[in-house]
Amino acid sequence: MGAIAGFLCRDAMQKEDVLKSMMEALKGRGALGEGRYKGELVALGSVRCGGDEIQPIIKTLGGRRLAVVFSGELYNANALIRELEQAGERLVMKSCAEIVLHSYLLWGDGFVKRLNGVFAFAITDGTMVYLARDPLGVQPLFYHRYHGQLAFASQIRALLQYPGVSTVVDESGVGEIMAVLPARTPGCGIFRDVNELLPGHYMIFDGRRAAVERYWQITPRPHTESYEDTLYHVRHLLQNSILAQAGEGEYGCMLSGGLDSSIITGVLAKHLLREERQLRTYSVDYEGNGQHFQKNLFQPERDEAFAELMVTESKTDHRNCILSIDALSHALLPAMEMRDLPGMADIDASLYLFLKEIGKTDAVVLSGECADEIFGGYPWFYREDLRQTGLFPWSRDLSYRESFLKVDLNVDLKEHIASRYQSFMEQLPPYHGAEEEREMFELFSLNLSYFGANLLERTERMSSHSGVKVRMPFADAELIQYVFSIPWGMKYKNGREKGLLRDAMKEFVPTAIYERKKSPYPKTYHPQYGELMRRRLKEIASDEDAPIYALVERRALQDLLYGTVNRPWFGQLMAGPQLMAYLIQLNGWLKTYQVKIRL
What we know:
- 42% of the residues lie in helices and 16% in strands.
- The relative contact order is 0.12.
- It is globular and about 70 Å long.
- The chain is of the alpha/beta class and 599 residues long.
């Protein structure tokens, strides 16, 4: 997908070394070269991971000299090219960056509403910078603004190269780390000087003021269609998104054997078979899981048999990637650095290793990410006891998190969560539908913006650093807008999580997968992994000067290492060895980024 960076300031011409350092920090996202634009007030840079396009693209259009850097993909590029050419615009390379530049000139600031894809880009005429981010925020974009200066970058690590941006974490940042991560409040960059351009927004900065506009928001609408008509529209929108994102080139599909990835596999396999082509599919597991798997409420069965069933039904060319425990352990800190923050520990690391294996045969792969957020696949959607807590339902055991927080910091985690929760609810659009549906609309919105955004970030970071493009058809703005207004009774048809999705796409999956209970992304059950995590965390805990002690109580680490408590930190999977892995990442982050706690 590549990456972008740049800044606007009075002495931009004297900051060539700064731009170079920012580009160097982004090299992990683009190994095929970089390009730069330098003006008196503005500097732009881009690194790329594929294609022939060299950025920035610089053109004189309509009497203005414009430059653009772009990261991401446009799924409606061909339709936009036709519109632009019919309007008299002359495109040479017909690349996404060139499309964006001509669209801006032709349609003005609001042109971003016409784009269908995942993107972050910057346009300049030398006196201002126009920044924009896709509706769901799949492509990252962080910024720092201070006294007439604006710096921006695809990742925090690059922004930290700009003068004045520090690694200080204040009270708000500590609240995020200890009460919210590995999710993150939209717009929050954790470090005191770092902000995030919100999904579905654009910003225009001219050195004096920053005008920020929201161009996309989920708006609740009356849903008057019958169940049968709703099924038809969901099927139509989802098939269109899958085929549009697959495109015309070579691609594969991640296949777990769960409902979401099986639906995408089924649609694509049928499409390719009509062209006498075979779909490549990929699944992942861990060494020893066949022997050590432990059935539980959230993961009642292994994926392997269901993936094999889907492969047989769809006649795909399938590869099963088995990850070693050592490789998983060694990838923990690199995965943290890909996020610039502690993440989902081995869940992040395993995805990175999985994508590296996929990259040996495919540069593009489709994934079922985001289906649970929009169709209601998580337990807190259908279990009232999990959502009536006043907290984030995926991180509801705040007392456990509080037990880890260093007492001397005196940060009120309950107050932090309450303020973030209340602020989010206040920013939702007015709801005029049935009162009994209001709570579910708020819950779906919260999940998409916090929990779902974390999973999208995980996929984007791990894929960008592996050199594989992961496309996510469920994360489609048109599909999401439609599905969000469907009443919960339809989504939860027959008392089944994602009942509507099951019925809409039933023809594409075997009966056993249609009826299968949701199973999350797989984790390792090998006792060796738990032993490795315990050993590494013991080494950290025994170091009196370990950075983690700036945030975490010693007693809490000792209780985790030697006690019997096994409570989840986040979601359904982060407990025991996974929590130890998260704390190892936290310590590594504090050390690598030389984080300073300043309350």
